[in-house]
Specification:
Helix 2 packs antiparallel against helix 3. The chain has one domain: Helix Hairpins (Orthogonal Bundle). The chain is built from three helices and no strands. Helix content is about 85%, strand content about 0%. The longest helix is centred in the C-terminal third of the chain and has 34 residues.
Length: about 80
């Protein structure tokens, strides 16, 4: 999942994608411990996708707080 696709998602879709990615990461770790992982690079790409989702989610939180602060300054 690339950054453009993630940025196009709504907040609810981001949460769902993050949950799905974390479940998949759990399953990959479990498969790795059993020696059943076919694609060893998937763990790395999945870890990066989780980081991207969390980063964009945090950017939106910061931007919302900034806009709220600007609106309060405009009202004063």
């Amino acid at each position: 999942m690339n950054t453009v696709e993630i940025r196009a998602m709504s907040a609810d879709e981001l949460e769902a994608a993050l949950g799905d990615a974390r479940k998949e990461m759990f399953n990959l770790r479990f498969q790795k411990s059993l020696g059943q992982v076919a694609d060893t690079n998937r763990t790395r790409t999945l870890r990066r996708s989780i980081a991207r989702i969390m980063t964009i989610r945090r950017e939106r939180e910061i931007w919302a707080a900034y806009e709220a602060g600007q609106n309060q300054a405009d009202e004063a």
